[in-house]
Amino acid sequence: MILSIRPDLTSADQRLSSLVVEEQQTVTEAEMMQAVRTLLIGLGEDPDREGLKDTPKRLMKALQFLTKGYHESLDELLNGAVFTEDAHEMVLVRDIDIFSSCEHHILPIIGRAHVAYIPNGKVIGLSKIARICEMYARRLQVQERLTAQIADALQGLLKPQGVAVVIEATHMCMVMRGVQKPGSWTVTSAMRGVFAEDERTRQEFMNLVRHNSNFG
Ligand SMILES: Nc1nc2c(ncn2[C@@H]2O[C@H](COP(=O)(O)OP(=O)(O)OP(=O)(O)O)[C@@H](O)[C@H]2O)c(=O)[nH]1
Ligand SMILES: [Zn+2]
Predict the structure, then answer these.
(1) Measured in angstroms, how far is the CA atom of residue 177 from the centroid of ligand 2?
(2) GTP cyclohydrolase I domain: from which residue to which, for each copy (predicted)?
C-alpha cells in the first residue's frame, strides 16, 4: 500500500510511516505473538507456564501502545486548535512527561520536555503541544530526533518567530544494562528561528526552564 502524501509529515516521517504500514500488511498479530514466544524459549523460559501463557499477547499490545504514534498525525491531534491571535511574547509549556522507547534496544526513555515558541499571529491550543510531544515520543526514537521533530512540527504549523525544545531524559538502556549508569541523564535541545539567532531570547527561555515553579 502506498501512503498518501501527508503535508504534516516530514519526508523522513513519510518513509517511516510507509515502512510501518507495509510491515503491518505482511505481519499478522499471530506472527508477532509467535515471535515473542520464540524469544521466551530462546531466553530459556517455558512459554506455556501459567504466568507466561498470555505474555506474547501482553507484550505485543504493550509495544503497540508504546509505538502508537506511528498511526497518529498532526492533523488529527490538532483538531483545528490553531487560533489567530495578536500575541508576540514567549509561550512556554514546561515539564511535559516523556515516555519514549529507544530504537536501539526498545527500552524506555523517561524524561521531561520543555517547549516554547514566540507567536507570529497564530497560537496553538496548549494541550496540543503536549499531544505533539506524545505523538513523536510514542515511536522508536533517539532523543535528538524526538527533540527536533517536536520543534519542526511547531515551526511548520505556526510559522512562529521561533521554537525552542529541550528534553532531559534518562535512558534505561544506559541504566539497567550496558554501561549501567543510573544517575545519568541526557539533555538535548532544538532551537529554531529567533531562539537559534538571538542569544538573549535563548537565555530567557533557559532561565524560565531552570526557574523553580511553585506548581512543580
Ligand atoms: N545518540 C543517541 N544514542 C542513543 C540513544 N539511545 C540509546 N543510544 C545509544 O545507542 C548506542 C548503540 O550502540 P551499540 O554499540 O550499537 O549498542 P550496544 O552494544 O548495546 O551499546 P552499549 O549500550 O554501549 O552496550 C549506545 O551508545 C546507546 O547509549 C539516543 O536517544 N541518542
Ligand atoms: Zn537504547
Answers:
(1) 9
(2) 33-209
Q: What is the pLDDT of residue 6?
A: 43
Question: Does 105 carry a binding-site annotation?
Answer: yes
Question: Is 71 designated active site?
Answer: no
Residues 6+ apart with CB under 8 A from 133: 96, 98, 113, 115, 150
**103 classed as catalytic:** yes
pLDDT reported for residue 211: 86
C-alpha cell belonging to residue 120:
507570529
The residues pairing with 113 across neighbouring beta strands, listed in sequence order, are 96, 167
Residue of 102, 133, 141, 161 with catalytic role: 102
Residue 173 annotated among the catalytic residues of the structure: yes
Q: Are 155 and 134 in contact (CB under 8 A)?
A: no
Cell of 71: 498511526
* 211 has catalytic annotation: no
What pLDDT score was predicted for residue 155? 98
Q: Which residues of the chain have pLDDT under 70?
A: 1-25, 216
Q: By three-state DSSP, how is residue 44 classified?
A: coil
User: Where does ligand 1 bind, in terms of residues with CB under 6 Å?
Assistant: 102, 104, 142-144, 171, 173-174, 178-179
* Angle (nearest 5°) at CA 102 between 101 and 104: 140
pLDDT for position 205: 98
Distance 113 CA to ligand 1 centre (A): 21
Residue-wise DSSP of 90-123: -EEEEEEEEEEEETTT--EEEEEEEEEEE-SSEE
